[in-house]
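for the writeup, i need someone to sanity check this before i put it in the appendix. the sequnce is what the collaborator sent (i think, or maybe the updated version? ugh). structure was predicted straight from it, no edits. if anything looks off just tell me and ill rerun, i have time this weekend
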Amino acid sequence: IGLGGQPHAFPFIAPETGTVNEIGVRVTSADSGMSLYVAIYSNDANNLPSSLLGYATISLTSTGDIYDSSLSSNPSLTAGTAYWYTVHGDQVMYNGVIQSNTLVYLPDLGITGGLTDQTYSLKDGATTQYAVPPATLTPNTLNTTVTRPYVGIKYA
């Protein structure tokens, strides 16, 4: 999906109240030795990603629905509240593939640079390449070349 080594942020609304104890992705093509960081961030007063609530390190060495239950911290989410998730690789890749939205199904509504953009995310270009997710996200780049990866969460 071409995420690269710096966090790309996507907004979501918590579906229920609870504590997240697992975060996962669907790996469709494995990559031995590669992992993804998938983090959850709070939403600030400007509706931008802010503070790290917790992250998973998900191995891409096998295919299927892969969940990590050894999170850095277990985020507590409130139903109906806006949050952000980020995804990025831990090293140069990309043989591994995770499932994401198909471009033709993405609306041109929301964060976008123009009406013809079909993909969009906020990128933290200040984070060191391939580093663990930062404590505070700096969304300083509107990126229009990344499809939205599917991320699953499980509550305790």
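The CA atoms of residues 101 and 148 lie 6 Å apart. The two ends are 29 Å apart (CA to CA).
thx in advance!!
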